[in-house]
Amino acid sequence: MSHSGHSSLPSRLSSPSHTKRQSELTSSFRSGLSSHSGHSSLASSRLSKLAVPLHTSNVIEGQLKIKYSGGAGLTAGYCRISSVFITVEMLPSVQITNWDVLPAETPSQFYLVLDLTNMTNHEMELYYTETKCIYMEGKEPCRIPVPVDRCPLNKLSMLNGNGDIGELQKVCSEHIASLVDLRWQLLGTESTGKATLSGITLTQDMLDLVRMSPLQWGMFY
């Protein structure tokens, strides 16, 4: 993946071609996924094994009632009522399909690698850090590396060392969801929104990268 900002993103991610555009942000790039080879195929296969969408469509059903009257009936207090049943399917504008965790250049951070798809028919601008954005065509997928601070020990201390993997995953998942800010805007419109990572699941290997190391250093005499 071509990435402006962190130049030494782990080589397991490939570098797709892209077209830069003018932006008020310090860096931006056009989305696109390229073929993977060598070590890059490893990241692709790891991501594909986690192909579980975080969000599905929501169906809302309702009844629209129309009451109307006129003429002599209105004067006499009569009216007619017509009912129409409506079903609305709500789909997310941004769909997260795959995710993985990779080491960052600094020990205090990791990369959350996300595969996303613009589910709309419009060109979209997706902001994934304060200074970086990506442009996506309608129905186009992309892959982005989001730098995230590792989960601090004070958040993990509440686990009391009981080794409950479910609680550990919950704490780390909530930590990621609280820090990752995915904001989108459909170009040429006033439509904006935010993609959420609530409910993301993590494997044991991912948890080892997400949480801070419990090692403590000291001087012995």
UniProtKB/TrEMBL annotation:
Identify one Gene Ontology CC term for this UniProt entry. trans-Golgi network
> Where is the stretch described as Disordered?
1-37
Where is this chain compositionally biased, Low complexity type?
Answer: 1-17, 24-37
Q: Which InterPro entries match?
A: Trs120_TRAPPC9
PANTHER family from the UniProt entry: TRAFFICKING PROTEIN PARTICLE COMPLEX SUBUNIT 9
Q: What is this protein called?
A: NIK-and IKBKB-binding protein
| Originating organism | Apis cerana
